[in-house]
């Protein structure tokens, strides 16, 4: 009996986690990847440039900022940069703060795992957020899979089938108990009569 209870609780827990993960993935993809939770955005790390502190495939929490001109050396920032004609988002550490003659601030950045600084300086208006220090290793792989068509299909069908099987099992147990009770009542009336 304990094993059945444990399996039941385990299946329920797995279903809840899968439903939460699918919900997060759908929410993130429908809001253009800029989903915000309690003022923080979640981003998937796609490269090893910040390892070992931030591993490839991790989810990181970043805090959007309004005034990016007050950042300092050592801060880890997320910024937009055009690379090969496409705008990408990068998270690297500030290694130097540069003031231009016209009052604008630029940052020299570098990935912790990269041998050299980034070739392009980052304008303060291209900085979108600062890294909060919160990381969930490997979860980014799962979220990216969940956003894909096969992943979405798999994450909808498998929990759906498990939920149906779980419901059928519970219904079968209730029906079995209802069938046993009338038999016991007839047996009790035959004994007393």
Description:
By secondary structure, the protein is an alpha+beta fold. The chain has a domain at 1-32 and 139-176. It contains 3 helices and 8 strands. The protein has helices spanning 2-30, 139-147, 149-192; strands at 36-37, 40-44, 59-64, 76-83, 86-99, 105-110, 122-123, 127-136. Strand 1 and strand 2 form a beta hairpin. Helix 1 (2-30) crosses helix 2 (139-147) and helix 2 (139-147) packs across helix 3 (149-192). The chain is elongated, with a radius of gyration of 27 Å. The mean pLDDT is 82. It is an enzyme of class 3 (hydrolase). Its main location: membrane. The chain crosses the membrane at residues 153-175.
């Amino acid at each position: 009996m304990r094993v059945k209870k444990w399996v039941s609780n385990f299946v329920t827990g797995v279903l809840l986690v899968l439903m939460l993960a699918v919900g997060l993935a759908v929410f993130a993809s429908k809001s253009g990847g800029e989903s915000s939770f309690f003022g923080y955005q979640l981003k998937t790390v796609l490269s090893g440039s910040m390892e070992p502190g931030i591993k490839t495939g991790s989810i990181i929490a970043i805090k959007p900022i309004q005034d990016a001109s007050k950042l300092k050396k050592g801060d880890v920032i997320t910024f937009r940069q055009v690379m090969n004609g496409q705008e990408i988002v990068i998270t690297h550490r500030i290694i130097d703060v540069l003031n231009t003659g016209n009052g604008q601030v630029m940052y020299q950045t570098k990935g912790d795992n990269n041998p050299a600084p980034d070739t392009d300086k980052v304008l303060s208006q291209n900085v979108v957020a600062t890294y909060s220090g919160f990381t969930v290793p490997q979860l980014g792989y799962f979220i990216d899979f969940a956003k894909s068509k096969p992943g979405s299909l798999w994450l909808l069908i498998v929990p759906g089938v498990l939920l149906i099987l779980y419901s059928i099992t519970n219904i079968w147990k209730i029906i079995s108990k209802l069938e046993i009770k009338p038999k016991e009542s007839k047996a009790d009336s035959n004994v007393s009569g």
